[in-house]
Amino acid sequence: MRYVLLLVTVLLFSSCVPQPVTPVVVLKYPDTWTPAPTATNTPPLPTATLVVQHTPGPTPTRDPNLRILPSVPPSGIGVWLDTTTLSADMLQLIAPRAQIVVTNGVITATQSANSSVLLGIDASKPNDLNPTLLSRFDGVLLDDANDLGADALSSLSSRIAPRLLLRSIEIPQAIAANAVTQTMTLGKGIDGVCYCNFLKAPNSQPDQFGTEAEWLHDVQTLAALSSNPNAVILTATRFPDDSAKDFDLMQGWLDYALSSYLLGMHNTHTFFGFQGKGAQDFMAAQGIVAKIGRPLGELFHTNGLYQRRFTRGLALVNPTNETRAFAPSRSYVNINTAPIPQIKMPPHSGLILLLAR
Last residue of a domain, which of 264, 289, 314? Predict the structure, then answer.
């Protein structure tokens, strides 16, 4: 009995003595966290990411009330084609470059998937249009529409809505460039125009050039037309059927017209065209796809040349009868990436330069 009491006494005494404690590490987060996280001895797990798998479906149906304006690509050069004067081989080569294709009723599979297709019709035959035919096109380009009154154009626009309605026009030199928007308005329901005598009369010969003043009038007229941010403008420099016989002359005309277009275009719905049987073959030239970028301001005149800076290059035109030459202040290459330490431009010539990388 005595030993039992002694054991109990020892146990009671030992339970009153403090025992050693093993420390526990607790991670504390800054008080600035909102909301403050619960203290824990393990780092928080990564936040889960929700992944949604998209199953490809059919192409959305076009909104029947949506009016789509074709736009110039980011490179800065927009192109339109009249397929009625192109051979099958050239159509295969050039059509994928164009943002607008004008046809007389046959749609080619060689065009770009993003290009707009316009039906070209004579203004004297608007009644030839029917809903089945129109359903295949993004709009209509009226040729010889100068005799149609505003009421007739408005009626036709309502009839084909929401498709685009463009009209061909020839602007005489007698109309001041800064007054073109007042004297030759687009009219109610007209979405744009084809400026069909840009730089030359359609029936004039390729070796005939206008004066510097006439050239400047056409470029300023293009600038006035394209100052409307929602107008679709097509430029057309047209040639007789036998013009393409002189390759060097026609190539020079392409460079001249293309550079002039770049000096005058303003909105992102203005497109370059080089037309006539054989002439459109030159649209396969490398300059058509030069990535010159967007304009940096207006054209300016220096060193005897008209110039305009772009985000990736420079466009120049010499519309005079004299050769001009100067050394550029920046490093440029031509469209074939050859360095250009000295610029020399003969009369009635155009040049596109790209910034050296």
Answer: 289
